[in-house]
Amino acid sequence: METAKKKILVVDNNPVILKLMEECLRREGHETWVASDVFGCLDILVEVTPDIIFIDLVMPRIGGEDLCRIIRNMDNLRHCYLVIVSGIAVEEQLDYRQLGVDAVIAKGPFGEMRRHILQAVADTETPRKTSIVPELKGAEHLHGRQVTRELLHNNHHLRIILESISQGIIELIDDRVAYVNPRAALFLGSVRERLLGRRVAEALPQPLLEAMTATAHAVTPETSLPPAPLQLGGFQVVIEHFTVDGKSPSNIIMITDITERRQMEAVIEAANLTKNLGYVFSGIRHEIGNPVNSIKMALSVLQRNLPEYDRETIALFLDRSLQEVSRLEYLLKALKNYSLFERPVMQELSVTEFIGNFVGLIRDDFAGKKIKIHTILPGDPLTVLADSRALHHVMLNLITNAADALDETSEPHIVISAERADVQINIKVDDNGRGIAETDTQNLFKPFFTSKTTGTGLGLVIVRKMLLAMNGRIGIESYPSIGTTATVSFPGS
Q1: What is the C-alpha separation between 400 and 398, in angstroms, rounded?
Q2: Does CATH number 2.40.320.10 belong to domain 263-287+339-491?
Q3: CATH of region 165-257
Q4: DSSP label at residue 108
Q5: Which is it for strands 473-479 and 483-491: parallel, antiparallel or unpaired?
Q6: How far is Cα 196 from Cα 204, in angstroms, rounded to an integer?
Q7: What is the rounded distance in angstroms from the CA atom of residue 70 to the CA atom of residue 193?
Q8: Region of poorest pLDDT, from 66-75, 283-292, 467-476
C-alpha cells in the first residue's frame, strides 16, 4: 500500500545527513523542512505542524532529548510522530517511552538508514502503541564505543549536579533560552519545556530582565555593589549575570534564593533597632520634658498678660514656643526613623544643625557611661541632600559601635565632626577605643560578620544600604589600640 504524503521536519546539525534525508524524503513525495539546531526547528514549528519529526540527539545549544520534551508539551504536536536518529543511540541509554518517542534509528551506512527512515514513515499509517518501548533499528552491525559511553556518563553526571543544586541556572544564547535547570523554572513559575528555545523577552519576566541589564552593566567585582534582592515567583532572590568567556555567545544567569536569609536578617535587624531605641528613649526622657515645660510656661505667661503685652512681646513668646515645638518635631522624626526599607525622602539638610540636634539627644546617656562627646563643626554652612530619619539611624549605629569599642579605655571620648572635602561633605565619628584588627577590616560590610560577642553582624550592612539609597558612602579606618574613624560622605549640596 502506498504511504500517504506527509509533512516531515528533520533536525540534525550534520549538513550531510540533513541533505541526504531531505533528498530521500522529497523523492518519495513528502513535504520536507530541515533545521540544523533546535532554535531553527522551533522557528519552523511556528509556521508548520509536521506529521513526523526526525531528531538527532546530540546538537549544539539544546539537545534532542530536550527537544522531544518541548514538542510533547505543545498542544498541536502531542500526536506528532517522533523519530530519534542518532549516532550515539547504541551507547545512550534513554527512556524513550518517557520522552514520547515513537521510533529510534541508529546512524550508520546511509543505505541501511534509508530503509529504516522510510519504514518509520510507513509505520505512521498503523495505530500507535504508546505502551511499547520503541526498538532500536539499524544497530545490528554497530558496536558500542567505550570512549563515547564514558563521555556520556560524565555529561550525565554534570547534568545531575546542575539539576540538583539549589541555585537557578539559565543559559542564554543568541537572545534565546538554551538551558534552564529545575530550580530556575520554579523561580519563574513555569516548566523547562515551556521556556527552552523561547526568546528571552518572551520567556523571562520583566523584573528579571531589568536585573540582568543592571548586572550586565556593573563594573568590576572589586568596585561593584552587591546584587540587589528581587521578588521572583514568591521568592526573594539575587541575580548574577556573566558570560562563559570572551568569545562564547553564551550568557549565564545565576539565581540564588535568599528568602530564608532575608527573613533571618529582618529578625536580627529588629533586635538591632531595639538596641538603638534605648539611646533614643533615654534622650527623650530628658529632652521631651524641657520643651513641653517651656511651651506651657510661655503660653501661661502670655495668657495672663495678653491685654498688657504689645505685638513685639507677644511675637517673642510665640517664637520661643515654636522653637520648642521644633525640638519636639525632631524627636518625633527620630522615632519614625525605624522603617528601614521605605524609600528615603530626600531633602536639603543642614549638617551643622543635624549634628547639634543629634548630639543633644544622646549626650546625657553617654555622660552616664562616662563617655565624652565632642563636636568639631565649621563656621560656614554645610548642606547635603539626605533623609534625616535614615541619617539619624546611620549615626546611631556608628556612635553605638564607637561606644562599644571604648569599654576598656581609661578616658573614653568620641568626636563628631563635619568638613567639606573638594566636592564632598564628610561627617566623621572618631573614637579612641581599641580599634579593629587589620584582618577584620575587610569583612566589616559582610552580613553576619562581627567581632563582638553580642553583635549581630548586620549593623554596618544596614548602614551602607541606607547610605547607598541616599547616594552616600561610608569608609572605615582603624588602628589597633589607637582608635577608629568612620566617615560618611555625601555629594556637596
Answers
A1: 5
A2: no
A3: 3.30.450.20
A4: -
A5: antiparallel
A6: 11
A7: 5
A8: 283-292
**Which cell is 294 given?**
517651656
Return contacts of 261-268, CB within 8 angstroms, 24+ apart.
261/447, 262/229, 262/236, 265/447, 265/458, 268/456, 268/457, 268/458
Q: What is the pLDDT of residues 324-344, one digit of tens each?
A: 787 677 556 555 544 444 567
Fold of 7-137: Rossmann fold (3.40.50)
Closest to 120 (Cα-Cα) out of 16, 25, 38, 37: 25
Q: Please give the Cα distance from 460 to 450 (Å, whole number).
A: 10
Q: For the chain, where do the domains classified as CATH 3.30.565.10 start and end?
A: 263-287+339-491
Instruction: Give residue 321's region: left, alpha or beta (phi > 0; psi -120 to 50).
Output: alpha
Over residues 21-33, the mean pLDDT reads 94
Residue at grid coordinates 541606607: 466
DSSP 414-456: EEEEEEEETTEEEEEEEE-S----HHHHTTTTSTT--SSSS--
The predicted pLDDT at position 463 comes to 84
Q: How far apart are CA 78 and CA 76, in angstroms?
A: 6
CA–CA separation, 393 vs 396, rounded Å?
Answer: 5
Over residues 270-316, the pLDDT tens digits come to 555 555 555 445 545 545 666 777 788 888 888 888 888 888 888 88
